[in-house]
Amino acid sequence: MNFSIVDTEIQEFINENIGKDVSKLALQKNPFPEFNWTEILNQISAKTKAKDKLPTWFSTKNIIYPSKISVEQTSSEKTAFYKSTLVSGESLIDLTGGFGVDDYYLSKQINKVIHCEINEQLSEIVKHNFEKLKIENIECLSGDSLDVLQNLNTKFDWIYIDPSRRNDAKGKVFMLKDCLPNVPELLDLYFSYSQKILIKTAPILDISAGLSELKNVKTIHIVAVENEVKELLWEIHKSYNGSISIKTINLSKQTEIFDFALDENTDPIYDLPKKYLYEPNSAIMKSGGFDAICNQFKVDKLHQHSHLYTSSELIAFPGRVFAIEDRFAYNKNNMKEIFENKKFNITTRNFPETVETTRKKWKIKDGGNQYCFFTTDMNNDKIVLICTKINQ
Question: Which residues form the signal peptide (predicted)?
Answer without folding.
Answer: none
